[in-house]
Amino acid sequence: MYIFTDNVFAPTSSTKKVYEEGAKDVALSSLSGINATIFAYGQTGSGKTFTMRGITENAIRDIYEYTKNTPERDFTMKVSGLEIYNETVIDLLNRDSGPLRILDDPELVEEVAKDVQRQVGRTSLNDKSSRSHQIIRLTIQSSLRESPGHMKSFIASLNLVDLAGSERISQANTSGARLKEGSHINRSLLTLATVIRNLSSGRPCHIPYRDSKLTRILQSSLGGNARTAIICTISPALSQVEQTRNTLIFATSAKEVINNAQVNMVHSEKKLVRQLQMQVARLEEELQSPESSSTSCLRTLLSEKEFKVLQVITLQSYSSQQ
């Protein structure tokens, strides 16, 4: 028996309808300081990429519309594009930067990427199959001055995730580079399924977040401080019944996972300044690291540091005038 979920959509449903009824509320919670993640799971050719493209476009449009109509709050938004390809994390905007490291830090601050750069390859299930996981992340910070010397600051991330296909290697009929890609994809999706299954069991057990780059990046979205919407896509073809069954089992387990979403809020300017100063110190350490020696990496880190320093100076200057 499969336990369903909040909504079931027909093949004729538009991505606008899927967004409005299945993802909009989660996406817009990021404007209130609540971390949010939306991702699509399913086999190749079942509509994941098409669905996530529509959801991403609608979510970004609504977020910008909200910021335009809320003049009493100051918004800062940063957008990053990440690709996980063969267990390597790549900055989609800057291919020359080399593989990215994953730090135990809640912020990732790259810039937006184009979907055309994503790794694709031909399989027997799809002529232009996505052979990687793609994550578009919006980091949204907003400030509201309630009274002189007292400011509320909210910060949250919205992850929009298009996973690679979950089909078996034998069904994809791949070889060579495609076979290697499939092995890495299956490993990361198996880890994701294990994380979901262990979280949904209701028993204390090890959660293997660190067994793949995908689950490590999405750790806070899986049983952590975030609201998460999962869209499971299936094929109506009789030949794909086994993969459809596996997807429904995944959906049933995912429905049982309990997250603990909280508003990420900083109440005072002094506390916000301290947080920014800590981030500047972390960036200074990164600049001294041998792994940061490439020109593109140094340029990115210096740009981020300058932005954080400017935020600190602005807040300190504003506070001294009150």
UniProtKB/TrEMBL annotation:
A GO molecular-function descriptor: ATP binding
Keywords: ATP-binding, Coiled coil, Microtubule, Motor protein, Nucleotide-binding
SMART domains named in the record: KISc (SM00129)
Domain (Kinesin motor) ranges: 1-257
KW Nucleotide-binding (keyword) present: yes
Residues reported in the UniProt entry to bind ATP: G42, Q43, T44, G45, S46, G47, K48, T49
Gene Ontology cellular component terms for the protein in this record: microtubule
Coiled coil: 266-293
Family: Belongs to the TRAFAC class myosin-kinesin ATPase superfamily. Kinesin family.
Protein name listed in UniProt: Kinesin-like protein
